[in-house]
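Protein modeling request. Please complete all fields; requests missing the sequence field cannot be processed.
Requester role: graduate student
Desired output: 3D structure, token encoding
Chains: 1
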Amino acid sequence: MGKEVVSPIECVRIHSYRAEAIGLLSGLMFLQHVEWKGHVEWHTDSQSVIDTWKRLHCKYEPNWLKQKERDVWMRLWKQKAHWKGRLKICWVKAHADTLKRKSTEDEKGNQTVDKLAEDAYHKLEHTPIGENGVINQNTFSTVGAEVYIQGVRMNGNVGQQIKEQAQIERAKREAKLKPQQWGQNTNEVDWKEMLRTCKNKTIADRKGMMLDMWNGKWTNEKLHKIGWESNAVCHMCGKATETFDHLILECPCFRGAREKVPIDVAEMVKQAGGSNTLQAVIHQVLGVHRGAVPKTRDTINHWCRQQYDSNWYEGDENKTKNEMVRALAEEIVVEMKYSLPLWNGVLTKAW
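Delivered output (351 residues):
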């Protein structure tokens, strides 16, 4: 088993479900290649893979066209016919080494395989497609009609994927017209990562995020324009025009909450194992100074600017991690230019 290259299309994502299915497929193909005649007991931490295997009858499955990763499961269906009753798939708890108990032998085996997979990933990180086991998502052929978007085959619920990609392309076009909300260079926005993380939010959370990112919340400035308020002055401080930018970045009534944000984010980074440099960079990127944040940002500091302009580029192995972290932080600020996207939760590729 090697490494699969991630698709550039936002609606196509490589996740653990596909990785576990490919792992099962590669193991069964190897055993078939060596002409193993005995029984096989396979352990996986993916219950979804086990459930799909149990109901796998693609010829008669009415929802087969909605099945995720059909290209992989088409081959697993053939393997199921080959192994018949000789294969037993068992579930094992993932990441059991983080629990306050001793891991079982099966769990230890799962941890060993995870480590081998991680080592293989890093070993093949810069290997071109087609060499030493590195494949892309179009490698496995399928049966019947195939749908492609920008040269990438759709392997899940095709109708849903087309709809999702169309919505993303529309969002990209609209974002270019709103640089203050989405940044000066929207090509640097990591749309795929934002789409992945928003799946974990509730509908109410998504609605709130959408209103924030598209400047959809009613402020005094908007209400005054339609005659619902006598003036556009901020209700909180009574000093400036109440815009979304003002409330998030400048209003002195929210100074305490604003100063607390980078502290809390840096603490989360620390708990996740982030270095001291990364924690310091969080403060620099968010840019809180005396309780407020400037609306536009050109650079973090002169030293970082030099790193970004002259001394660093992607893949440069001569630079230290601290230098790369600072340079990436500078890249975020320079490419966004405006501070609001960073506070709204817009993720860039440099993040």
